[in-house]
Amino acid sequence: MPPTSAAAPRSPLPAVVAVDWGTSSLRAWVLGPDGAPLAETRSAEGMDVVAAGGFEAVLRARLGELGAALDGLPRPLPVVLCGMVGARQGWREAGYLEVPVPLLEVADGATAVAAEGLDARILPGLALRRPERHDVMRGEETQLLGLVLHEPEASGLVCMPGTHCKWVRLASGAVSDFTTVMTGELFALLSRDSILRHTLAGAAASGEPEAAGFRSGLAEGLAEPGLLGARLFSIRAGHLLAGIEGTEAADRLSGLLIGAEVGAALAAAAPDGPIRLVASGRLARLYDAAIRAAGREVRLVDADDAVRSGLIHAARRFWPLAEGDPAR
Fold first, then answer.
1. Computed from CA positions of residues 93, 98, 99, 102, in that sequence, does the dihedral angle turn out positive or negative?
2. What is the mean pLDDT of residues 174-199?
3. What global pTM score does this model have?
């Protein structure tokens, strides 16, 4: 059963605060009973940059930015959170639900956090425990929950780009398997700490799927994902012998990493329909181009919409919401 609180409001709420707190960023919304965002704030205060013991202070600062949008909400303030805020290094460790798990059960494992003036609930992550392979996710399960609210019997492969990209197998609305690929973190590490730092010289990738460097790197990564190490060094050689540097080199690095990831993931996947791509912005464009270049159909699911839907669904399990709340 969902956690209960003696401070839970008796009358329906007009809105709740929902927070998606990842490795590299934080997003907070005031959501109406239909899940529509009434106000939002974003920052780069992901788990990687928040000091130990600093999560509550950061959350309160972001709530302060939401200001007038919180007027009319009860005290203690209802806040539902997902992502790395529930990790061992986060605000309060929330447990894992074991795969396979129906996504509609995610809210049942929430952890209540005692904090003055707040009624906060952190959603659990998912864990895969197998002798040959262990894996975990936090935050993506809430996006997947939002996906299955619109496709209750969704099955097939889901790609979820990010600092740590997830490839998820759904079976009739449940997570049956998943794999994490550290593509985003590898890009950051190689750009900053490897010999390639001399070639990129601090330049960022353009993020454009039609950029020549990205397209060439993508083609090579898709064709021979097992040769990624050799292809990476060719970026350095291209700088020394052909003067390729800066943004073009960063685009090539991005293309190689994404191409190798997508090529390996799809080589191991059955051709059983479109790949659901849960993403937004630049990553949505890059991974859409990569999956299509691999010859697969893409069904795009906006990551922000999905996580808000999942968070508002969880909030309904904890607190009554005003009329107009969809019956899900």
1. negative
2. 97
3. 0.92
